[in-house]
Amino acid sequence: REFVRQEIGDRHAYQWALHVPTAADGGEQPHFHLMFSERQVDGIDRDPEQYFKRYNAKAPEKGGARKGYGPSAGQTLTKAERAAELKELRGRWEAMCNAHLERAGVEQRIDMRSHAERGTGLEPERKQLPSAWRGEGRAQVIEFRAARAEVAQAAAELRRAVPDTGAEIIHLEAERQRREQAQREARERAEREKAQQERQRLERMSSRELAQEIARLRPPRVIDLVERDRAVLQAEAERQALQNQHTEAGSAAARARDQAQAWREAHKVQAWFHDKGIGHAPKLRELEQQREEHRAEWQRLGQRIEEASLRVQHVRQQAHQRITAEQEPTLAKLAELEALQKEKARQEREAEAKRLQQQRIEREREEESMAALEHRLAELRAAQEADATQPEPSDDDPRWAAFERTFMHAAQFEHYLSLTVLAAPLAGLKARFAAYMDTAAEQGMTPEMFAQACAKGMAEQERRAMQEQAARDADPKQPQEDSPVSTPTP
């Protein structure tokens, strides 16, 4: 019913019948007969006499129903097109029938393909006429079909027992392709990781290291490699060998000519008769023949030298093209490295310029701070010398402990000053520490920073004193240590 609804529906008048006769082997042989009219139901009410008349396209209600069935209704089809439509119809029946078999829980399935399309290796059974089913023919047909079923079952069991070589080959080929793909992906991944590591290594290099790397990777000149190429050397050797033979042939021809001329001078009469064709001088004829042979060889070798020179030129061009192509990846990498090296050098120059500028700024700040501090200390020393009162004690100043600790450590362990040298200056600092520290604080200095500055200044003063003493020892005219001129400033 579902198949009839699918193929006929309400578009045509039809009727069908289901038959289940007994088959030759005793089983059931279900089949159905479907009869329908190709006249299309178009909704126009017609009596039976009008229904089967010719269709009227201009006035359908005046004519009969239109003919046409299926997707190509009303079209004239070729034999191949009709065969294709029939094949599609069989395919639709196969799909619907198998769906209902599965729904009913039946394992068997139908297949509308031929034995050749399915690859069963069986021949289609010929149509059996009614006469073949009478008498002994019926038993023979049943026996034949049973035997063929046994053969089919044996073939199926054989296929299960014997591996499918074709399928195994296909499986192995697929496995080979899968492994090759995996290996290719692994190589590509390794190459990417190696390239990433190489980029990181190059990025960590300085401009000088990059310049060394560029010099290491830079290949020799192409022209030098061309001259050392094996094919070029061989072609050049062949040309040089021909050139040597050419020179030897020319020399041999010249020797034969000179010998012939000398023979003529020694045998003028025989030479005159020889030239006039009166008799022949065998020796002269031999020398002239040698000259001609050597000259012909000289000319022939000259042509071969030209050909060899062209061959050398051609081999050089081929070597130049090959070597240039081989160096392209290296030269491309060198171009990248050179660009990176230039960028690194620019960054290093900028960083160095910033560093020097920062050092200059810090030095200027330090010089300004020290100048202001020295100026203030000079004022305080002048005030101390002018003030006859007792110096202010510094024991009560809480900043003195931090100053003294930092000063002693810096003076002894950073500037290597002895306690003897430190005693008098430290006492002077302690006497006026509060005033000195207030001045240093105005410059933004902590007790520790002021202690470092004092230790550094004292070390510099001690160094100048030692230099002056060394100069006095070297030059007796210099003032002596007890001279007021050479006395260091306290």
Structure description:
The protein is mainly alpha-helical and 490 residues long. The protein folds into 3 domains: 2-120, 2-Layer Sandwich (BirA Bifunctional Protein, domain 2), CATH 3.30.930.30; 222-354; 390-486, no CATH class. Helices cover 70% and strands 2% of the residues. It contains 15 helices and 2 strands. It has helices at residues 2-7, 48-51, 79-103, 115-118, 136-161, 165-204, 207-217, 222-228, 230-266, 268-276, 282-386, 399-414, 419-431, 433-442, 447-474, and strands at residues 14-19, 31-36. A two-stranded antiparallel ribbon has the order 1-2. α7 (207-217) runs antiparallel to α11 (282-386).
Characterize the biggest β-sheet: 2 strands, antiparallel
Shape category: flat
Roughly what is the average pLDDT, rounded to an integer? 83
Judged by helices, strands and strand pairing, the structural class is mainly alpha
How many angstroms does the end-to-end distance come to? 128 Å
List the uncertain runs: 388-392, 481-490
Strand arrangement in the largest pleated sheet: 1-2
Number of strands: 2
Number of helices: 15
Radius of gyration: 60 Å
Q: How are helices and strands ordered from N to C?
A: HEEHHHHHHHHHHHHHH
Number of domains: 3
Indicate the percent of residues in helices.
Answer: 55-70%
- Share in β-strands: under 5%
